Amino acid sequence: xxxxxxxEVAAPRRVPGDRxxxxxxxxxxxxxxxxxxxxxxxxxxxxALWTIYIGLTNYTLTGTTSTxxxxxxxxxxxxxxxxxxxxxxxxxxxxxxxxxxxLGQNILGFALAWFLRGARxxxxxxxxxxxxxxxxxxxxxxxxxxIAVLDRDGGTLGALLGSPGxxxxxxYPMASLIVFNTWRGTAFxxxxxxxxxAAVPPSQLETARTMGASGWQTVRDVVFPxxxxxxxxxxxxxxxxxxxxxxxxxxxxxxxxxxxxxxxVFIYRQAISSGRLGYAAAIxxxxxxxxxxxxxxYLVLLRKRS
Amino acid sequence: MRRTVLLAAAMSxxxxxxxxxxxxxxxxxxxxxxxxxxxxxxxxxxxxxxxNDAGAKWIEDWVIPEFTKxxxxxxxxxxxxxxxxxVDDDEYKAxxxxxxxxxxxxxxxxxxxxxxxxxxxxxxxxxxEEIVGKDKVDAWDGWDQIPDAVQQVSTYExxxxxxxxxxxxxxxxxxxxxxxxxxxxxxWQPTSWDEITAAAVSLKSLPGVTPVQLxxxxxxxxxxxxxxxxxxxxxxxxxxxxxxxxxxxxxxxxSVLDFYQQVYRGKLAxxxxxxxxxxxxxxxxxxxxxxIGILLESDYFxxxxxxxxxxVAKMADxxxxxxxAKIPAMAPGSGVDGQDFVSMSGGGLRVINPKTQxxxxxxxxxxxxxxxxxxxxxxxxxxQITQRExxxxxxxxxxxxxxxxxxxxxxxxxxxxxxxxxxxxxxxLQQATADVVAGKSAEDAAAAYKDALVKAVGEDAVAGG
Lengths: 306, 465
Hints:
heterodimer; A: 306 residues; mainly alpha; MetI-like fold; 2 domains; 73% helix; globular; B: 465 residues; alpha/beta; D-Maltodextrin-Binding Protein, domain 2; five-stranded mixed β-sheet; four-stranded mixed β-sheet
């Protein structure tokens, strides 16, 4: 779709002080960027704008407002801020992110990377393979396995604890989801920290050992300063993934009685079950804003470091 | 550069925005009427080996080959595809609603009767006379066989939108084996709500048995409303929608929620079934395993769930072990119109997608699917209350449960209002029962329900308490 520039148009000469370091010229630079920009525009910018637009209407899946939606301004946003269920969903999402990503995946991932560092190769490879497996299996398969584990009639966990009859997903929905997501996503943190730890100079670890530093002191004073950037990047990524994760729906469908209805599940319920596309779009936009705010906070922290 | 991108984005946005949301196109009933190569699709919430297995088998193994043959004899080469899914009702509804917005949806689509109002108001479906022509629709001889009450299922504001698929009725099913253990009669027939709780209290002495399963909560969606709130509500003497108003926190609604509180606080029902994601399916399994004493369900439960051969939760000794009783009013004579016993009925319908490329051929297929021959093929030796009286007369005699529904229940039953707001009201009712199960008092749940109702349908359309 981008045609090559005619041969007689010579590439502009590089002038000292010119910012065009690649020597491409504006036209060709645009040519190189265009496909990427087009894709971003089509699949990122346009859907985002479209969501904002739908969020300003009372568009529904069925009924009169599906044929003739009206512009309602900021009503949807005002309603969301007043909606106890939205507040509930926001709070549960926060719990889910802090519990399973910021603490769960981060700590477990680092612990695995740290302790496997010195382990025998076969042990290390086996553990890594299992952790990775939980990450690469399709969500639906994993959800089915977890339902089998947590089921109240003949669930594996009930059998192991010798106390069948506990419906974990109904009685402890959020705790179950947090454990589930920690298990599900730890692989990424583990891999990231494994490579980050390789960058810590062995001589410094050696010195710490000869100085008689305990394991925790070594991690805190020698390792952590080296991998701070990795921790922030990792936390940013897994927080955003977790906040937008839809697998909780497969396990609890938001229930019982909204007790595990995180924002993505809430949006799905509003859009598909209740058919309120306008309202759901407004909340999607709010979720987008929350994501951006989280990302900004991390970026500021990251910049402060350097 | 940046300006160009912004400009392009702004332009494309305005272009799309100006015409995309809720667009409609006019249809012409005569298009492709003489086509020799025709392709039609039937969309249905049924799948072989899963949900509504019999319906899927019928369409794939009987309707499609027979219709293809019939058309071939007329020199038309027709190819019928089956778009069958087996999912929860609200997911199916979303799929269908999205399909209607595109050009890829089925030509014949099965719908639940309660969705008729909102789809009709949204213009996603149109009156049959607009799609295929009034004279053609009126000419079908099958209309005479469909009772007026059943035709209501497919009629909105006096216009026919499709052909009904039959109807059903709700009763109390009970396990005679469990009843015998606690000395309750095999021909049990309660005459008030108190007699239901009394029976449940005696069943409670059996270990591992849930005395009564009364559907509740939001996870069961419409099953909560249809097999819980509404049959109880008509037992208090009021229908959910009357004289242009919905029941708010009226005495009737409060009595219903009180009964829920009594049942769930008294540990006569299992709150987990009302809360977990697949609670209704599990209640079916538990009933089939003799773990539930009394279950309020429709005849669907008898013929598709615990059927010894084709059910999703087969019960080998169904015919001897399962009894049924009419649902009593709160007290004798307290039901709607002073009735002693009450029930609720619903039913599905098949419509023609207004966007079909072949309206005339779709209408032929629809008539074919509702012929006496096709209806009998659907039953295939089993019994069900079909839309056709001629077929009902032949087949119902073979099944005592279904003839009971036809003779005893249909005369006393009520239908849900097929108006656009109904699904929102239904959701609010489900939430009210979920609140009670979660521990809220009936009083508080009723108040919260009223607030939700006012928000959903407006103050003027709610009857106060």
